[in-house]
Amino acid sequence: MTTRKPKLTRKREQYVKERASGVLVGKPLTYSAAQMEKYSASMGRLIDAMFKDYAKELASVFRQNEVITIQDAAMDASISSQARILLNALRRKWGRIFAREAPKIVERMVSGVDKAEQAQLKESLKQLSGGITLKTDVMPAALQQAVKASIAENVALIKSIESRYHTQIEGAVMRSLQPGGRGMADVRDFLEHYKGVTDRRKDVIAKDQVRKVQTSMNVERAKSAGIKKFRWLHSRGGSEPRPDHVAMSGNVYSYDDPPVIDRRTGERGFPGQAINCRCQMIPVLEWGDEE
Fold first, then answer.
1. pLDDT > 90: percent of the chain
2. Which of 221, 249, 228 is closest to 143 using CA atoms?
């Protein structure tokens, strides 16, 4: 009487096949779209409040001087002085607010990415190991330093939104008071245009920084779990894919010796670290790595 072998699941069959070839592969590590959206929304609420405050206060100054014609206003020092005094006050006010709120926004983002990354890496390494759950909640010293650097970088990026905006709106207001200017009408046109510019910038920051933070966490935690290599996976997205990243897709690299991700600068790194890079990494274990 012969005993029947239990039927392997598709995942288990894949694992057995990979094990026989001497290479074990985890799940691709994708990026948290939810954290990107939350981060962008948090920045957006702060930016919207600043825009509304500037628009309200500037409109008040122009209304107080509406009896002066636009051409007279160009010759009149009163409205120009009032506008400068107001703009300086708004710069101080929103500089303080951004300095206070930016660290809170960034810390929430990092915390959310941390949770999402741990869960995803855990599943990836579980597939790689054939069902064994590996510890992924550790915070190695190298990762602690990377997180601190990321927090500082993100705080600076958010604060730069405020400083850039103030410089631009100050120029728009002064130009609106010059001969040919239309006063508050010019300022409103600028506000509408620059709001779109700022919204696009915050979205780019959110996507780029979430990818970078998550990549740093994936790299250091995979290394702490004993994984030494990863496979590069090109996203196949984007209207102008980087030829170098396309060529790297499928190649296996060492975490300790990452490939060049920018030929112009010679920078080395991992998927998701270059600006607008949506490539992914896949943890890999080859025979001999466990030694």
1. 55
2. 221
